[in-house]
Write a structure and sequence with these properties.
By secondary structure, the chain is mainly beta. It has a single domain, classed as Methylamine Dehydrogenase, Chain H, CATH 2.130.10. The strands form 8 sheets. Strands 3-9-8-7-6 form a 5-stranded mixed β-sheet, with no helix packed on it. Strands 2-32-31-30 form a 4-stranded antiparallel β-sheet, with no helix packed on it. A 4-stranded antiparallel β-sheet has the order 10-11-12-13, with no helix packed on it. It is globular.
Length: 403
């Protein structure tokens, strides 16, 4: 990956720019100036100008802008916490974690880099702190921050062992619950879950037969206490969606297989006021988006098929779901066979009948990977510019989206 990305330009060279620094003089904007009826893609997401190579420790940059950015970045998680909005992700060149902070949903400050091979997958917050989780080499890691800028790595025996992966995190009972799997990105794996009273100390749920042959992709408070969703089967031949429930975060029960789970993968889940649990994903071919709804986490209903979730030659993948001001908002990407797809947003008042937000220039050449509620708006994050010029990207919804 590193060789491919660097070779796209004339070639990097040493520089005195510190890793993770950002250019000065970045323009500012205000939420008040934004069109209240349109999704806005932020033009002020600060990007790092250098990265530290894992092999040599030399800070390098890549030239030939504007055809390619200096550094390739992705956003993979976002949350609204004590000091504002925080999103996390990583830098492709050296697979190092990254984070951004915003107080208005429009201007995003790059708040520093993380060690190499720290791929941050998700972030959550409570009243005291932010917690980001992801990969640390062939194992897992968690980082905490009280201000969204300075991060401290959590040292916990619960993260020992490899290969392990963390994919998701949610606040719960003043603490946090995180999900992932034991194994790597290939072949078979077993689900894994962790619980923490404060984000600082962690305990991993004991291995269970109910975890065998599955991965956790999302976790939310709801049902009997907690509900996790994911997918069965090995990575190269995935099986149907799977759901687990728990009352304490340490003992989990697998929901019995049901035809409603067949031919689908669940990527994310949220607890929506007045609706219940809403899980999103797509069919196993990656062609058609799917939504599931449940009141208790045990019995699920699949939303009716709809052309807005994909049709022949139009592939849809739904990556994220969150509560809107009056309903539920889902987001992902739509691919019509071009070089890169476009972000897609769907809204619903009941989780079963959906409408898609209008196309617009803010969605072209992009994908949304995560989202969160912020006042009466939704903040979505992801990336744009693939396949060889990834740039972390954020969007701000209209006021009252989903009405």
């Amino acid at each position: 990956m590193l060789a491919l990305l660097v070779s796209a330009c004339a070639g990097p060279g040493p520089t005195g720019t510190p890793a993770g620094s950002v250019p000065s003089g970045t323009p500012t904007s205000s939420v008040a100036s934004l069109d209240p009826n349109t999704w806005i893609r932020s033009t002020n997401v600060e990007q790092p100008t250098g990265f530290m190579t894992a092999q040599t420790g030399v800070v390098i940059t890549r030239g030939c802008a504007p055809c390619h950015p200096a550094i390739d970045t992705l956003m993979t998680g976002v949350t609204n916490g004590p000091t504002g909005l925080v999103t996390v992700g990583w830098i492709l060149q050296d697979f190092s974690g990254a984070s951004w902070l915003s107080t208005d949903g429009s201007n995003w400050a790059f708040t520093g880099g993380f060690p190499t091979e720290t791929l941050l997958a998700a972030v959550a917050s409570n009243d005291q702190r932010y917690v980001a989780v992801g990969r640390d080499g062939d194992g897992v890691t968690a980082w905490t921050s009280t201000d969204g800028s300075a991060w401290q790595k959590v040292a916990s025996p619960a993260f020992a062992g490899s290969p392990l992966r963390l994919t998701s995190i949610t606040p719960w009972h003043g603490g946090f619950v995180a999900g992932g799997y034991k194994g790597n990105e290939f072949f078979s794996a077993d689900a894994a879950l962790w619980v923490s009273p404060d984000g600082l100390t962690w305990q991993r749920a004991d291995d269970s037969a109910d975890f065998h042959g599955a991965r956790v992709w999302g976790v939310a408070a709801g049902g009997p206490g907690l509900v996790a969703v994911g997918q069965t089967g090995p990575a190269d031949t995935p099986g149907p969606a799977v759901v687990w429930t728990s009352t304490d975060g340490l003992t989990w029960t697998r929901v019995p297989d049901d035809p409603v789970f067949h031919d689908g993968r669940m990527r994310a889940i949220a607890n929506i006021p007045s609706i219940g649990l809403v899980a999103v994903g797509e069919d196993l071919a990656g062609d058609t988006g799917i939504v599931w709804v449940s009141k208790d986490g045990r019995t699920w209903t699949r939303a009716p098929a709809d052309p807005i979730f994909g049709r022949p030659e139009i592939q849809v993948r739904i990556y994220t779901v969150t509560a809107g001001p009056t309903g539920v908002v889902a987001a992902g990407t739509l691919d019509a066979g071009v070089q890169y797809g476009e972000a897609a947003i769907w809204t619903s008042s009941d989780g079963l009948a959906w409408k898609r937000e209008p196309d617009g220039p803010a969605f072209l050449d992009t994908e949304v990977t995560a989202s969160t509620r912020w006042n009466d708006r939704i903040v979505a994050v992801g990336d744009r510019g693939a396949p060889d010029a990834y740039q972390a990207t954020a969007w701000l919804s209209p006021s009252g989206v989903g009405r």
